[in-house]
């Protein structure tokens, strides 16, 4: 650009992109550019002769008297001073101030340069908001860490307590296995010997009652042992082998007919196939399900035991007629210590169906129940197919 096309010094200062002022040492405005006048919405004539301090907000005036003005006198310059100036319409305008003190021949004067700081204010507000958010997140993290530590302490305590309970359960298993089974075996042998030696019918009946009571106590002990083993967390142990499912279930039914001579037990066989299972555990399943059917079913109806094969595996089911099981109770049937109202004077600790479920799970199978007034009640244990 040719030198003759450049603006003169006065125009250049008047249109500078910042507010520029020249004041005396006491702050009286001697010169001011048009940019500053436009920012404040004031005419140049109204600003000349005023003290710069009168254009500041109350906070700005106090800050001027206590901070930057004395600093300017001592150091000769200040920079990046944040102020609020009053617009002609009363608005507060945030600005940044840089100032120099100059010494003239007869007096000193101040050169002021001001810049609008709205964007900087916005940035600072955002920065403060981000800092506040970060502090809140930090507090949340500290609270979460504290809760995590507390939860870990509770977990360690619960684990220690579970270890104590597991140890106690194992000790109880030993007590039940040795200290209770051994005397029961002796009592059963004595009652059998008494039954063979005596001829009086009354004494034979007493011996029979003793044997029956011992058998029932042994079953309860076996249930409690299985319950304890399942609750310790190891699950029930099974010894799966290739078996003839129909033959195993047939033998179970024959033995149960001797135990329940007053009821008719029917065994149905469906299909043929290979089955891997624990025969003793299957006897336990059938015995528990048949015992439930006889206790809770119609005393005049048959109890049907079915062993069968399908495309997905094998199954064992027990069916009886009688009062249906309410739908809302079917989900809780397989939980421990849950009992119904038996038709006969039977007694149970409510572990039979729980143990049946655990046996099914130990075989990677499942148990289900269907019950209604028309078709009766059917419990079905399904075992997966072995390839």
Structure description:
The protein has 387 residues and is an alpha+beta fold. It has three domains: 3-116, Beta-Lactamase; 123-232, Helix Hairpins (Orthogonal Bundle); 241-384, Heat Shock Protein 90, CATH 3.30.565.10. Helices cover 50% and strands 22% of the residues. The strands form three sheets. The protein has a five-stranded antiparallel β-sheet, sandwiched between helices. The chain has a five-stranded mixed β-sheet with strand order 7-9-10-12-11, covered by helices on one side. It has a two-stranded antiparallel ribbon with strand order 6-8. Strand 9 (303-310) and strand 10 (313-320) form a beta hairpin. Helix 7 (245-259) packs across helix 8 (279-296) and helix 8 runs antiparallel to helix 10. The two termini are 94 Å apart.
Summarize the model shown:
The chain is an alpha+beta fold and 387 residues long.
Key phrases:
single chain; 387 residues; alpha+beta; Beta-Lactamase; Helix Hairpins; Heat Shock Protein 90; 3 domains; five-stranded antiparallel β-sheet; five-stranded mixed β-sheet; 10 helices; 12 strands; rod-shaped
CATH fold type of the largest domain:
Heat Shock Protein 90
Strands in their spatial order, largest beta sheet: 2-1-5-4-3
Q: Main sheet, how many strands, which sense, barrel? A: 5 strands, antiparallel
- Radius of gyration from CA coordinates: 48 Å
What percent of residues adopt helix (DSSP H or I)?
40-55%
CATH class of the largest domain: Alpha Beta
**Structural class by helix and strand composition:** alpha+beta
């Amino acid at each position: 650009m040719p030198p003759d096309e450049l603006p003169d010094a006065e125009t250049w200062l008047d249109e500078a992109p910042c507010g520029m002022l020249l004041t005396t040492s006491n702050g009286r405005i001697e010169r001011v550019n048009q940019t500053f006048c436009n920012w404040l919405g004031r005419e140049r004539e109204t600003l000349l002769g005023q003290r710069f301090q009168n254009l500041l907000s109350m906070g700005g005036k106090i800050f001027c008297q206590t901070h930057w003005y004395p600093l300017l006198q001592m150091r000769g310059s200040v920079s990046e001073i944040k102020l609020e100036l009053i617009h002609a319409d009363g608005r507060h305008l945030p600005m940044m101030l840089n100032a120099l003190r100059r010494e003239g021949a007869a007096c000193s004067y101040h050169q002021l340069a001001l810049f609008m700081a709205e964007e900087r204010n916005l940035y600072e507000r955002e920065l403060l908001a981000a800092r506040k958010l970060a502090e809140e997140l930090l507090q949340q993290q500290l609270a979460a860490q504290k809760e995590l530590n507390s939860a870990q302490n509770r977990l360690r305590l619960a684990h220690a307590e579970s270890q104590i309970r597991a140890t106690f359960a194992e000790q109880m298993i030993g007590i039940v296995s040795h200290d209770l089974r051994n005397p029961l075996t002796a009592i059963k042998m004595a009652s059998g010997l008494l039954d063979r030696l005596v001829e009086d019918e009354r004494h034979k009946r007493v011996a029979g009652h003793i044997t029956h009571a011992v058998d029932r106590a042994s079953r309860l002990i076996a249930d409690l042992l299985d319950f304890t083993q399942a609750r310790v967390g190891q699950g029930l142990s099974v010894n799966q082998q290739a078996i003839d499912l129909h033959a195993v279930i047939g033998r179970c039914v024959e033995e149960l007919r001797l135990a329940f001579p007053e009821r008719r037990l029917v065994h149905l066989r469906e299909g043929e196939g290979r089955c891997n299972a624990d025969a003793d555990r299957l006897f336990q399943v059938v015995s528990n399900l048949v015992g439930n059917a006889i206790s809770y079913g119609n005393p005049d109806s048959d109890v049907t035991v079915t062993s069968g094969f399908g495309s997905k595996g094998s199954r064992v089911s027990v069916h009886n007629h009688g009062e249906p099981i309410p739908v809302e109770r079917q989900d809780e049937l397989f939980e421990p210590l849950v009992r119904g109202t038996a038709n006969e004077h039977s007694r149970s600790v409510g572990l039979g169906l729980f143990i049946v479920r655990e046996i099914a799970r130990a075989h990677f199978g499942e148990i289900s129940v269907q019950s209604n007034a028309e078709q009766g009640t059917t419990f079905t244990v399904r075992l997966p197919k072995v390839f």
